[in-house]
Design goal:
About 40% of the residues lie in helices and about 15% in strands. With about 375 residues, the protein is α/β, with parallel strands linked by helices. It folds into three domains: about 5-65, 434 Repressor (Amino-terminal Domain) (Orthogonal Bundle); about 70-165 and about 295-320, Rossmann fold (3-Layer(aba) Sandwich), CATH 3.40.50; about 170-290, 3-Layer(aba) Sandwich (Rossmann fold), CATH 3.40.50. The chain has a six-stranded parallel β-sheet, with helices on both faces. Strands 7-6-8-9 form a four-stranded parallel β-sheet, sandwiched between helices. Strands 10-12 form a two-stranded antiparallel sheet. Helix 1 (about 15-20) packs across helix 3 (about 40-55), helix 2 (about 25-35) packs across helix 3 and helix 5 (about 80-95) packs parallel to helix 13 (about 295-310).
Length: about 375
């Protein structure tokens, strides 16, 4: 590489800035990006050289000088559905602010996932992996390679930053709320495979409260279609559950559709709850009781954490759990706070700062 490889629009190269400031091109790059360890006096020299030479850095040139790709990789199991879309929006917004492009790999229906992930890892400066999408042995390889790595909705792992939303406490609160309605027979629809991921934790939380009163029921996927098909079998059989706790909102919306087709009333014949608080949850009829999690914030936090790792910043908190909150609506039954008035039900508060009709917080 020579000085012509890393230039600005006006023809001045990053090498010339480095020579004027008496530092390396990597130091110039870190100073310009505002990332990585650069002493204050050194940063001043760099910025003075930039001003004197009227240097305007190109994003590609700075990345090339650092030996980087200016791209992050992110591995999702599936790009369809509102949950993944929200997380990805939060991630992309921050990555764009940081001047990084995003290379996305969706593993659904793909063969040779191990090879695809390894190939992607060689084309990016750092990688975000969602849940149990990538086999553990490949995760071990990525950690051993020292590639900056962030795991979303994953158990803590040495050598990687792990981020997830809280599941256990909110699942317990949701189960206790349903017990307060007097329900005694439950099903958990969308059962996990003991992977330690988010759905697995939700199952653990409700099981701690409900014990043998709840049974797991598998769905093919965490989608409206899979929820609908599984709920048709579950609710159409004898001795159906009084309440169905679903792994996510999409499965829950499918369950409501199945109940309607079977001539069952939600919540009078069967109560239904979800998880995520996607937009459709509040507009469903009845509005869906669920657990709100900060989906965009999760993606944004992952993008910032990965950028810091790429810049060589050591993160003191390598594992973070974001708060979640049960949101009680009509799909789990009438609530003790409700006051009947001429056949209508008084609107309830969904969130202390965001009142919305038809909702209430658990007592």
């Amino acid at each position: 590489m020579d000085g012509r490889d890393v230039s600005a629009a006006g023809g001045v190269t990053i090498y010339e800035v480095a020579r004027r400031a008496g530092v390396s091109i990597a130091t110039v790059s870190r100073a310009l990006r505002g990332t990585g360890p650069v002493a204050g006096a050194t940063r001043e020299k760099v910025m003075r050289a930039v001003e004197e030479l009227r240097f305007t850095p190109s994003r590609a040139g700075v990345s090339l000088a650092e030996g980087r790709h200016a791209a992050n990789g992110i591995v999702f199991p599936n790009l369809s559905g509102p949950y993944f879309a929200e997380v990805l929006i939060g991630y992309e917004e921050v990555a764009s602010e940081l001047g990084r492009s995003v290379v996305i790999l969706s593993t659904k229906g793909r063969d040779a996932i191990r090879d695809l992930v390894r190939e992607l890892a060689g084309r990016v400066d750092g990688l975000v992996v969602f849940g149990s999408t990538v086999p553990d042995d490949v995760i071990d390889e990525l950690v051993a390679s020292s590639l900056p790595l962030v795991l979303i909705s994953h158990a803590e792992r040495p050598g990687a930053v792990t981020l997830r939303s809280e599941n256990l406490a909110s699942a317990r609160a949701l189960a206790r709320h349903l017990l307060g309605h007097g329900h005694t027979k439950f099903a958990f629809l969308g059962a996990p495979y003991a992977t330690g991921d988010d759905v697995d934790q939700r199952w653990q939380g409700v099981r701690e409260v409900l014990g043998d009163a709840i049974e797991p029921v598998l769905t093919a996927e965490y989608t409206v279609e899979s929820g609908y098909e599984a709920a048709l079998r579950l609710l159409g059989a004898g001795n159906r559950p009084e309440a169905v706790i679903c792994s996510d909102d999409e499965v829950a919306l499918g369950t409501i559709l199945a109940a309607e087709e079977l001539g069952l009333s939600v919540p009078h014949d069967v109560a239904v709850t979800g998880w995520d608080d996607i937009m459709a949850a509040r507009h469903a009829r009845p509005a869906l009781t669920t657990v709100r999690q900060p989906m965009r914030e999760l993606g944004a936090l992952a993008a910032r954490a990965l950028d810091q790792l790429i810049a060589g910043v050591s993160l003191e908190d390598s594992h973070r759990t974001l708060a979640t909150e049960p949101v009680i609506r009509r799909s789990c039954g009438p609530h003790s706070e409700e006051v009947a008035y001429r056949g209508k039900v008084r609107p309830h508060e969904q969130h202390p700062q965001e009142p919305r009709a038809g909702e209430s917080r658990p007592r």
